[in-house]
Input
Amino acid sequence: MSTYTLDTSTSRANPTPAPMRRLTVPKLQARKGGEPIVALTAYTARMAQLLDPHCDLLLVGDSLGQVIYGLPSTIPVSLDMMCAHGAAVVRGSWHAVVAVDMPFGSYEASPAQAFESASRVLKETGAASVKLEGGEAMAETVSFLVARGIPVIGHVGLRPQAVNVLGGYASRGATNAETAEIIGDAKAIADAGAFAIVVEGVVEELAVEVTSAVACPTIGIGASAQCDGQILVTEDMLGLFERTPKFVKRFDDIATRISDVVQLYAGEVRDRSFPGEEQIRRRTK
Ligand code: KIV
Output
C-alpha cells in the first residue's frame, strides 16, 4: 500500500470511490475570474472523504490548533502536527488539491528554513502545496520555494499568526494606510509566484481591490463574494461551535445534533436497552 492510499480494508473506511484524477495547482490557478474555487479546511481522513467530492481545495489549516487541540491560538501549532494531519487528509481525498499550512516559526527565519520545512511537508504528506502567512516580508521566501518546486498559497489581511502584533482578530483595511499595506502585500506575494492568495478578514471593498490587483486567484474568508473562491473552517460552517465570527455562515447546527444523539445513547446505556438484540451475538449451540 502506498503511503498516500486509503486503507479500505478497515471496517470504518468507505468503499473506495472510482479514483478521480486529482485537480492540479495550474488548473486551480487558471480559475482566476472564472468558476469560483470551493475550499474548506480538513484535518482528518474521514472529514476529507466527505468534503473532497464537493471541493476544489482542501486546506489543512493551522486552525487545527484551536479546532482539534483546544489551543488558544495557532501560535503553538507544530510542524509535526501539520504533517500528521496533512497525511491523513491526503489519504482521505482523491479529487481536491491539498494545501498544508506552514505553522508559526517553521518558515519566517529565512528562505532556507522555509524550504526545509515545506519540503518535509510535501514529502511526509503527499500534499501538493503549502500556505504561508505574510506579505512583502515573505515575498523572497515565496519566490525561493516556487523556484524549487513548492507551490505556495499566500495569506494576507488578517493573519492569525500575527495576532500578537495585530492585537487581536479584528477586520482589517478600514484605513487608507492598512488598505495600501494589504494591497502591497498581495501584489508582492503574487509577483513572487504564489498560485493563490487567501484574503482574510478585510472590508469588502479592499477584497475586491486586491482581487483585481493580482493575477492569481484570491480565496476569501470574511472578505467578499467577488473573490475568486471562498474558504471557511469546516467546523464553523457546520455549526460545531456556539460562538462563531460574524463572517461565518452556520449552514447547520451540528453541535445540537451531536448533543441530542449522545443524550439518546446515554439514555439507552443507562436503561440497558443498548446493546439490543441486533448488536449482540449469542452462542449458537
Ligand atoms: O488555518 C486556517 O484554517 C486558515 C483558513 C481559515 C484560511 O488559514
Remarks:
- Strands lie at 37-41, 57-60, 97-101, 129-131, 152-157, 196-200, 218-221, 229-232.
- The longest helix spans residues 254-270.
- The mean pLDDT is 93.
